[in-house]
Amino acid sequence: MPMTLPVPIEFRLPEGWLPAAPPDGVDVPGVAFAAVHLHPDRGFTANITVSGEVPRDSATLAELADESAQRLREAAGPVVVAGRREVGSADAPALTQRLIFSAVAGGTRHDLVQSQVFLTFPDVRDPRRRAVIRLALTATAAQHDEVLGDFQEFVRTVRPDTGAGA
């Protein structure tokens, strides 16, 4: 069952990506939205997932990124944090990280790369608190750089959903 995000957001998928709908989509617990790339690489379909939470007040983005890497370790085994960078501004801090791991999908082991972006938004129920939205691109090591530009384009379109409609 998909999770509900702590803040409503809107975004636009890049060309070549489709929303994933169960049962054919990405079955990842705790994910509010998933999209898949139209062209799998050797049996693995690159995917973008969106999840979110209202973390404890003292949690830093680096700690949330550590927790995300740890959850992946518990599911997939060894994970290497290949890079991490704080981005954004003091008013809207963000963090990116790249994780490298391998996992079995469709009966075949794949070397995978996951690029994660953690974005902060005011909590709609309590503006003194913040919500963190995690965007993740998972792709084979061979396809990652090919679809990374699409993911970056996707990230640039994510914003709070004000209900104004376009």
Architecture overview:
The protein is globular, with a radius of gyration of 16 Å. The strands form two sheets. It has a seven-stranded antiparallel beta sheet, with helices on both faces. The longest helix has 17 residues, at 141-157. The chain has 166 residues and is an alpha+beta fold. It has one domain (9-160): Protein Transport Mog1p, Chain A, CATH 3.40.1000. The two termini are 28 Å apart. The mean pLDDT is 89. Helix content is 20%, strand content 41%. 31% of the residues are buried.
Average the pLDDT over all residues and give the rounded result. 89
Total beta strand runs: 9
> What is the CATH C-level name?
Alpha Beta
User: What is the beta-strand fraction?
Assistant: 35-45%
- Total individual domains: 1
User: Assembly type of the shown chains?
Assistant: single chain
Structural class, from secondary structure content? alpha+beta
Architecture (CATH level 2) name: 3-Layer(aba) Sandwich
Give the terminus-to-terminus CA distance: 28 Å
The CATH topology is what? Protein Transport Mog1p, Chain A
Strand order of the largest sheet: 2-3-4-8-7-6-5
Tally of helical segments = 2
Overall body shape: globular
CATH superfamily: Mog1/PsbP, alpha/beta/alpha sandwich
Radius of gyration: 16 Å
